[in-house]
Amino acid sequence: MARILVVEDDMWSRRLVFELLVLRGHDVLCAAGVSDGRAQLDSVKFDAVLLDINIPGGGGEVLLREIREYNSVMPVIAFTASTMTGDRERFLAEGFTGHISKPIDVKSFGETVEAYLLPPT
Q1: By C-alpha distance, which of 58, 79, 85 is closest to 7?
Q2: What's the rounded Cα separation, in Å, for the pair 88 and 24?
Q3: 3-115 belongs to which CATH class?
Q4: φ, ψ (nearest 5 deg) of residue 43
Q5: What is the pTM of this model?
Q6: Among 57, 64, 111, CA closest to 90
Q7: Which residues share a beta bridge with 121?
Q8: How is the chain split into domains, by residue range?
């Protein structure tokens, strides 16, 4: 299936997402902040990134801008508890591919992530 990077500072959320995606057959690596995420992205080719907005090291938007400098098509999904009116639109305007709100729906989470993945080339 896909190789997915999960950048999430909350250990429990990170572990839950990891388990749900691995159960669906994905290769999942995790990072706890911008610097960890950057290191993973520099050393591994990913098919998608699940990126929390409020993470240590500058926030998810900082890492998104860096990703978009070299890869404009890889799905980068905002994974956040920010659900105020206009947040989803703002994330899409910033260059995120999509938005998944926390708390997640455990039953549909894997399918939701997979809907953002690009078809294999």
Answers
A1: 79
A2: 26
A3: alpha beta
A4: -115, -15
A5: 0.95
A6: 64
A7: none
A8: 3-115
User: How far is the C-alpha of 20 from the C-alpha of 4, rounded, in Å?
Assistant: 12
What whole-number distance in Å separates Cα of residue 32 and Cα of residue 95? 21
SS3 state at 80: strand
User: Exposed/middle/buried for 31, CB within 10 Å: 0-12, 13-18, 19+?
Assistant: buried
- The two structure tokens encoding residue 68: 């978009």
In angstroms, the CA 98 to CA 114 distance is 11
Residue 42, pLDDT score: 97
Q: What does the block give as tokens for 116?
A: 């953002």
Q: How far is 96 from 77, CA to CA, in rounded Å? A: 6
Neighbours of 83 (CB within 10 A): 10
The answer to whether 75 and 48 have CB atoms below 8 angstroms apart is yes
CA distance 19 to 28: 9
pLDDT bin (cut points 50, 70, 90) of residue 70 is: very high
Distances (CA, A) of 111 to 20, 114, 117: 10, 5, 10
